[in-house]
TrEMBL record, chain A:
It holds the Pfam family Transketolase_N. It comes from Flavilitoribacter nigricans (strain ATCC 23147 / DSM 23189 / NBRC 102662 / NCIMB 1420 / SS-2). Residues 21-258 form the Transketolase N-terminal domain. The keyword Ion transport does not apply. InterPro entries: THDP-binding (IPR029061), Transketolase_N (IPR005474). This is Transketolase. Signal peptide: none annotated.
TrEMBL record, chain B:
The keyword Cell wall biogenesis/degradation does not apply. This is Transketolase. It comes from Flavilitoribacter nigricans (strain ATCC 23147 / DSM 23189 / NBRC 102662 / NCIMB 1420 / SS-2). SMART domains: Transket_pyr. Belongs to the transketolase family.
Length: 281, 318
């Protein structure tokens, strides 16, 4: 996929995230908008996974540790053809499989998550199993910055380095906010790079809302043979909608009709601009 | 007595917790609040504003929060660690078991968003096993109040109680019908309405469901004795047995799995002392899903109609 196509996907995914959250009157808007570029690049550029090979034991694996941003994952999986996108009109509704956190009832999901601090340990297990089975697959997870306070993440980090899981890549969606406020005010995680490095991982930092930069970084995995890879993706919570960017209440805010209209207008303008660039190119 | 059980305006039980903590902040300098990044959900902002030095933010590290609470209790504080019920119990069970229960620490674990009624977040967050887990811990007191006023009163009462305790409450707005000025007595069952045909023991949000069911049954000439078991452990065995001696059959109602909760606690008392037919209104060994409380409760067997059906079934078994 070209850089422009990736950029276009991100804008369209943002429109869809807002559309289904608005329709559901529920969802984690800010975090979905901050991590969507990461998921876009993973699924469209990096990982070998699709509806066609989803039952193949050699497929790449993705587990969303920050499960609350499930809307971002739903729209990407729908786009890849795992299920019809209009199914998402039932998001968070009674009897819908598209519940508020990832569930394997939805095709394309590898793992039920929701409570934080679970994803990295599960991925470490996946990666270790692949090593033992001599499968060349890679395992990816997106972690929330707030959930780095979970001790279980650091336990998993020790284990992954110990077992030299260079088929494992953790991406930190570092939007610097969590439900109560800024990470720095709740429980600061800096200096995160040095901490992760001290646990035996190789760390790269990237603009996590720049699909080109993300693609460049994630295409040179593992960063070092014999070590797990960690990407600090610097993102903006609520990215792509002017009045949501960095504003705490959008952690799980649902837009009013007026706000929804404004947000969709901004995103459509961004989409049109990209389309014009494609034509010019 | 049924007609005196009136909803004075829906309020969330978690707001009752927040109001109780606000009050404790004023009257008991030893009370310390802890929270794992869910201050707004737990409604403790007023406590924090007025007592910033008595609040500890643990971030999203519940195991760490329980360990810190145990340590604070050693120093004579009365810690109230609080988060969602799934994170407050199952996630940190070994920390609770070893550092709080086995170590006999005076820690009050306060847990919101218990049960199906948290709604949209779905199964990971809808814990239906917590009463069972906490009831099994030696020495633990387990309380599941039924409305805002009772949750506030229970919170305040916990500060005077010595020993580890689990206070379980919920997310949604719910009928508020117990007195605002009540004195909460831990371990003392509350007679809501006397009756002769069947004893209904209920806890938490399900108390209101049983009140509505009793009104419907009364129209059919069935007299229900309604007893609110806000404290599941220690259970008010005398109140249970006194009621059963009169009615001869039992329905239990809880927003919890049918295994390990209030129903089993009552059944233990009955089998050892006075065996009578019992029917459970509880979730039938499954996880939840997204939806509104009004959609989920009937689907999982916790609707008013389910209480009515359970009463009719148990009456036939008498």
């Amino acid at each position: 996929m070209t850089d422009r196509e990736l950029k276009l996907k991100s804008v369209e995914y943002r429109q869809k995230i807002l559309r289904y959250i608005y329709h559901a009157k529920a969802g984690h808007t800010g975090g979905s908008l901050s991590c969507i570029d990461i998921l876009n690049v993973l699924y469209n550029q990096v990982m070998n996974v699709s509806p066609e090979n989803f039952d193949d034991p050699g497929r790449d694996r993705y587990v969303q540790s920050k499960g609350h941003s499930v809307e971002a994952l739903y729209v990407v999986l729908a786009d890849l053809g795992f299920f019809p996108e209009e199914d998402l009109l039932t998001l968070c509704r009674y009897q819908s499989p598209y519940i508020g956190h990832p569930t394997k009832k939805v095709r394309g999901m590898e793992q039920n998550t929701g409570g934080l601090g679970h994803g990295l340990a599960i991925c470490s297990g996946n990666a270790l199993a692949a090593k033992k089975d001599k499968l060349p697959l890679r395992v990816f997870t997106v972690l929330g910055d707030g959930e780095m306070a979970e001790g279980s993440n650091w336990e998993a980090m020790m284990l992954a380095a110990h077992y030299k899981l260079d088929n494992l890549c953790a991406i930190l969606d570092y939007n610097k906010q969590q439900i109560t406020g800024a990470n720095a005010d709740v429980i600061g995680l800096e200096p995160i790079r040095q901490k992760v490095e001290a646990f035996g991982w190789v760390v790269r930092e990237v603009d996590g809302n720049d699909v080109c930069a993300l693609a460049d970084t994630l295409q040179c995995l593992p960063f070092e043979a014999g070590k797990p890879s960690f990407v600090i993706a610097h993102t903006v919570k609520g990215k792509g909608v002017s009045f949501m960017e960095g504003v705490l209440k959008w952690h799980h805010g649902v837009p009013s009709p007026e706000q929804y209209e404004q947000a969709m207008k901004e995103l459509e303008e961004a989409r049109q601009k990209l389309l014009e660039e494609v034509v010019e190119a | 007595m049924l007609d005196k059980l009136v909803d004075t305006g829906k309020k969330a039980t978690r707001d009752g917790y927040g109001a109780g903590m606000h009050e404790l902040g004023k009257v008991n300098p030893n009370v310390v609040a802890l929270c794992a990044d869910l201050v707004a959900s737990l409604k403790i902002q007023e406590f924090i504003d007025e007592n910033p030095e008595r609040f500890i933010q643990s971030g999203i590290s519940e195991a760490n929060m329980m360990g810190m609470a145990a340590g604070l209790a050693t120093g004579g504080k009365i810690p109230f660690p609080s988060t969602f019920a799934n994170f407050a119990t199952g996630r940190v069970y070994d920390q609770i078991r070893q550092s709080i229960a086995y170590s006999e620490k005076n820690v009050k674990i306060c847990a919101s968003h218990a049960g199906l009624t948290l709604g949209e977040d779905g199964a990971t967050h809808q814990i239906l096993e917590d009463i069972g887990m906490m009831r099994m811990l030696p020495g633990f007191t387990v309380i599941n109040p039924c409305d805002y006023n009772q949750t506030k009163a229970a919170t305040i009462a916990l500060a005077e109680h010595v020993g580890p305790a689990y206070l379980r409450f919920g997310r949604p707005s719910w009928p508020n019908f117990t007195p605002a000025d009540q004195k909460f007595e831990i371990g003392k069952a509350l007679m809501l309405s006397e009756g002769t045909d069947v004893s209904i023991f209920s806890t938490g949000h399900m108390v209101w469901q049983t009140i509505e069911a009793a009104r419907a049954l009364e129209k059919e000439g069935i007299s229900c004795e309604l007893i609110n078991i806000h404290t599941i452990k220690p259970l008010d065995e005398a109140a249970v047995l006194a009621s059963v001696a009169k009615t001869g059959c039992v329905v239990t109602a809880e927003e919890h799995n049918r295994y390990g909760g209030l129903g089993d606690a009552i059944a233990q008392v009955l089998t050892s002392n006075h065996p009578v037919p019992q029917e459970y209104v509880a979730v039938n060994d499954s996880f939840g899903e997204s939806g509104k409380p009004a959609e989920l409760l009937p689907k999982y067997g916790l609707g008013i109609d389910d209480v009515v059906a359970a009463v009719k079934k148990v009456l036939k078994r008498k």
